[in-house]
């Protein structure tokens, strides 16, 4: 019997040795909340995985033996478990909050939390990865509430735009690791200068309204708070490639060392995106890299980020004239691009925008005690580039030249090529001190000092006729300097189920610019502005996952560069002020997460283009006394079954200006003809914005998702198509007649499937079909109406968006 038993054991030993088991479980915090994206790893062999949306993980194909498991998550302490694996088993982790708030202090100082009395949406790295086929960052935020996105080239690659609650990018505050990203002068955010930044983002918070105090430009419609790559404990390499319509290609390599010696890590990314664009000659060639190195001490973290973007895009920023886009007999009526067309019918080959932007960030977090922590950042951004363009019949006097005489002929105008440069430096410091003396009380003191220096100048590269222009003639130059100082204090006090919030910010701006003085001479001059931005709110906590809130906030916003340089001190516009009232309810659970938010945004002195000209004949924005936006927002996600989820957002709003006067130029007598409106819609402000996503996972690792977006009609100016009395509109076509963007409804289909094979942690396959129903629509436009021959003539331009198109991707993770 002993011999028989020994023989059976000997026969089974090879099988037992080769048996493969698994370890699975869930990672939560001390309140039981799932931690999606947490890292669970073993060291021998080196294998790691990340938890899903429910905090679940699984490590498979493991032989029997002893294993040391580690679970980590940003802002929580590392937890280790030892397991003697004899068969498939379960190991759950409950993580405790880290006293250092690993790498989060800098970012959370300007962020809302789940009980903050403001409207916000958090977008995770996983959400970004699902949709990152190569389109610009605004398109990856398209499913967040109250957002409208558009693309100059029509397919989301190259220059793109984003509006939140109808407010354009110059009124949306953007920070990267708490550091301002908005251009200091125009106040816009140009994500084309950071191609594929989404591949280096850990998470984003999108706030709507004034929101919490932040650094940089004032948030007049919302804010986008970006946190880039954070700690990953195990080494990794991700190789991703996408290809699709309009010769669009995206190639990205992400790699990292993991945690070295428990102290150091290095992460890097290299990307290139190319596309011909949907619009004719609207190609993009975008390159970028991201490098991040970090040191993790016992009570501190030091991280250095260096990232850069180089863009060369052919210009498509004028849109398509209405008479072209409405003419179905023309083969390119939806893709026509007039920029750079020369008299011979060919396009100037270098009608491009070419810009390089380098970013350097040094981020430091320090735990001073169990109640006090500090974060600070030094930053420097270097930008230089130009746009080059062919100009027909350019008047030589516009370039500071005197017409040249050749015998009896005088050269007053010529075809020429010009290059307009921007050469700038932006640097400064940000900081935040967080103090939590008691569990129900916390304070944050934060702020920043930033300085901008920008040189604007232009060269003439070529003239068709000799107009007395020397080679590389510089026809203008002006310098600008702007300093921006702010300090804010925020406190939160919990009294039972009631949380009181207060947030006070002081901001001081000094701007030196080259502009017109009272005598219409261009001279260096300056403006100093002081803003006080108070905020207060109250939250009632129903339970751990649900609360109701209300808040009042004040935001102030300075005029932009053009407002200053295109005016004299006599008609210079005043800063804008926003009084923002918000109230809402939100809840979060395993089955349903969502909320509803009411907002009323009352503006004083909002800056609006009216068609009027200043005392030097330039169209300017002027302050309108009273205007407002009021509405209701909804967003929610239902996990209907284990395999099916449904999400939706909706915004219903009214957006009005009171007692508004628009001016049309009457070229018959060079007069200005007024249009007075007691109440009118604010331009580019749809009354309804809705989105939806239905996602189904038929198999493990697979997903089919249908994403939809509806935008109601919106006006291109503030007249609601009203014209002066006695001046009929010319033309029969609706595009010629209306200064209007039609409503549109578009849907995208997204397919994802991921699996693992030997030596490859994950293989991800993806396909996204955009605009699957082949809808013809325009997401943006511009209008320049005037009066000619006794009739109103609308010069309308529209940005046509791509019809049905696709992108396919493959990602290998090692």
What does the model show?
- The protein has 814 residues and is mainly β.
- It is found in: Cell outer membrane.
- This is TonB-dependent receptor.
- InterPro entries: Beta-barrel_TonB, Beta-barrel_TonB_sf, CarboxyPept-like_regulatory, Plug_dom, Plug_dom_sf, TonB-dep_rcpt-like.
- Keywords: Cell outer membrane, Ion transport, Iron, Iron transport, Membrane, Receptor, Signal, TonB box, Transmembrane, Transmembrane beta strand, Transport.
Topology (elements, then pairings):
Blueprint: H1 2-18, E1 20-29, E2 39-43, E3 46-50, E4 56-63, E5 65-72, E6 79-85, E7 89-90, E8 93-95, H2 105-108, E9 119-124, H3 125-131, H4 137-140, E10 147-151, E11 160-164, E12 172-176, E13 179-180, E14 201-208, E15 222-228, E16 236-244, E17 248-256, E18 264-275, E19 284-296, E20 300-314, E21 320-321, H5 322-325, E22 352-367, E23 372-395, E24 404-406, E25 409-411, E26 413-438, E27 441-463, E28 473-495, E29 498-516, E30 522-543, E31 546-557, H6 561-565, E32 576-588, E33 592-613, E34 619-639, E35 644-666, E36 671-681, E37 688-696, E38 702-711, E39 714-715, H7 734-737, E40 740-741, E41 744-757, E42 760-770, E43 778-783, E44 786-788, E45 791-793, E46 796-800, E47 805-813
Parallel strand pairs: 1-7, 1-8, 12-15
Antiparallel strand pairs: 1-4, 2-3, 2-5, 5-6, 9-14, 10-11, 12-13, 14-15, 16-17, 16-47, 17-18, 18-19, 19-20, 20-22, 21-46, 22-23, 23-26, 24-25, 26-27, 27-28, 28-29, 29-30, 30-31, 31-32, 32-33, 33-34, 34-35, 35-36, 35-37, 37-38, 38-41, 39-40, 41-42, 42-47, 43-46, 44-45
